[in-house]
Amino acid sequence: MAVADRGQMEQWTWPARYDEAYLPADDEPYWFRVRETMPPEEREAAILERIREVMRWCWDRAPFYRRRCSDAGIHPDGIRSLEDFERVPVVTKEELRVTQAAHPPFGDHLCVDETEVAHVHGTSGTTGRPTAFGISRDDWRVVANEHARVQWSMGIRPADTVFIGSFFSLYMGSWGTLIGAERLGARVFPFGAGAQGQTRRAVVWLKEMRPSAFYGTPSYALHLAEVAREMGVDPRAFGIRTLFFSGEPGASVPTIRGRIEELYGGLVFDSGSMAEISPWMNLGESLARAGMLVWQDIVYTEVCDPRTYRRLPYGGEGTPVYTTLHRRSQPMVRLLSNDLTRWEAGPSPCGRTYPILPRGIYGRIDDMFTIRGENVYPSAIDEVVMALPGYGGEHRIVITRAEAMDELAVRVEYDQATAAAGDSAVEALRRRAETELRTVLGVGARVSAVPPGTLERTEFKARRVIDDRDLWREARRSV
Amino acid sequence: MAVADRGQMEQWTWPARYDEAYLPADDEPYWFRVRETMPPEEREAAILERIREVMRWCWDRAPFYRRRCSDAGIHPDGIRSLEDFERVPVVTKEELRVTQAAHPPFGDHLCVDETEVAHVHGTSGTTGRPTAFGISRDDWRVVANEHARVQWSMGIRPADTVFIGSFFSLYMGSWGTLIGAERLGARVFPFGAGAQGQTRRAVVWLKEMRPSAFYGTPSYALHLAEVAREMGVDPRAFGIRTLFFSGEPGASVPTIRGRIEELYGGLVFDSGSMAEISPWMNLGESLARAGMLVWQDIVYTEVCDPRTYRRLPYGGEGTPVYTTLHRRSQPMVRLLSNDLTRWEAGPSPCGRTYPILPRGIYGRIDDMFTIRGENVYPSAIDEVVMALPGYGGEHRIVITRAEAMDELAVRVEYDQATAAAGDSAVEALRRRAETELRTVLGVGARVSAVPPGTLERTEFKARRVIDDRDLWREARRSV
To answer: With an 8 Å Cβ cutoff, is B117 touching chain A?
Structure first.
């Protein structure tokens, strides 16, 4: 294990030291050629070193981690293999909230002096106690440098202009994209989103500025295209070549991806892991577009059995568990995502030897609901409905209970063309949706077709599932 | 003129070269002691050098400036005094729009190759053609370093946490504050504003994070305090020591300033010149709080007669004309603000030898309206109304024409206490407003008092003047 000696490791050290002046040649596909294309076993040996360093760092500085490891009878020095590391208890988001409530504002998993926290962000959820992210100046540069690497793999270059169409606030998506693009030397256009009238203004500016790259959520890209068309502007006139996304699974759903590419005439790239993980671009697609790459030398990711939290063999479907390898202010060691994915061994056709998530992150363990004994993921419904010819751009999934029976209802908007074609066209779309949903889900759904523009659009993450079963349960309890 | 030799000039050169590692000691009141406290004549001699350098730069690279100077018979080498410089034609915002329409997207006043533009921002106006700001990487660092200086003079230090409560988009206010605070080494908390529910979330986070400094618009600070109180939170619980503002004249209006200080229990600082000027903190208050300082070595400012665009002697009231001394991507040479201010000679009690704007920017030349022969500035009305005991936090100014006579009407909200005190208290407030307005304006105004919460609040810049006279004119034309 002479990892530190290996010159070709491109200075992979703990702490991470990045040369801020470094930039590959424009026609070089890799930011760090050696690190991205090395044999996976070699990379894993180095990852094991990093893990031990991170764990020692946490052991020495964070009561939160030391307590958890002690309780599990684990010492950083005892981790001699990636299999050993699987015994380290996973951290849940709820535990982060609890430690922050007890040790405000950053929690006792903070591994630097509080005065070293230079950037504050957090979870943007509107309910419950939010979680604060305390990021040191050094870690901020780690995020910038590592996001630059991933954006480079998507083909973004210094000559590009990156339009950022997401809200700048707690949400690290916007900031992480911004500092990565800046580090890469691209021109940034952090337009933001979320204020009234902002989407119409975005259309005006996109037409004028013609940025070559767009970042946002898939929902927002669809909404923006709709607003553009209402204004008589074809989104293709923006001249966007690369659209990259995070925050929602949509960009890996073939029908959504296809729809966005059709609307904009550009290529779609998915990326992103979790709000609590920065650099969150540790999952991201390259130009090969064969699924999201698991950039293991940025954040070590284990796709785990959701009961045992042990790694699944490649080919398996499970939940990602993340360990940041370079963050020192608030490292995450085995953070449980409860997301759902399937992983495959690399290499990708782009030559990178990382594992691959061919369908990206396609659901959440806890989004799954059970209808008459069948496990149903909302993403599976999205995929069917959005692929329907005549789909009008929005839909809702409503789960109710009538009598003692779960009912799955889907409301689907049809488009203007279908509306113009008359009632029989609407009815044909409705029936086709019912047939295809039954095939894919193994359970029947009542589909109703609603006119264009009926359902509210979102500027951020789409929330399409309405579960009314609790109402029924409450009603029952009260009688 | 051996400016370049003077060691004590703290490396004031063209182009500006800032040592990014430099930081004064915490108890040092000045960022650059020599530059901030030198005799004004010495500074002016150096400014003249800078002006010639900026003008040569523009002459060589920007057809826009070369054309204008040639037409006026001026060559950079011919500028031998600040008086000579007054002959350079002022630039209007409209002219910037025209050059950008003719040479999209940045206009032919861009002085670097378009590929060097690293950051895109712009005017955030909702009507008319927006103006794009193209800022190079070097200029971005100029803004960061110079804003750090001004924030330092407000007493902001590396131990501070700066909460930024303004929208991150085109608006340079948010970004300029952010990069200045980062450069100064403070902790930044760029919370943003503008999305639905964001102000309530801000209250939750402010209570938890207790930042020592706040940036936003005065309107937003007042709105935020109101929302906090609705939620049962006293804004003083946020523990904010320093509140600094731009984007609106409010922070220099004694009653608004007093109101914000009373609500938050912190000190208010005004800053800011124009959206087109970056670094826009070239006008900013220091801890002495004796008015905004005119940081002449950042942006050279002339307070001019609004007809001749020649400098007024100190003591005079006129409109500021700005010349950026360090920006190379889109330098502004004699940009006309059409704002209204009065300037005085320095030094300020803080020891800085800059000129001073004792009442800040208190109006716009074109905001002024004429009512029955009297010139009225809306800011004068704001000042009277906001000082009324029982003022409920919002008001509107309505100018109408009934018959052939201009009418000035003011709608003023009263507060809950006045409402509780009954009709006679409301009537007393109304009468007092009428009396005081007549005294200050020299013209009568009809005041109506409206219940608390009647008038819409803004999260950004307040728009309180409604001029209905055009309606009357149109109605007349059509008969």
So the answer is: yes
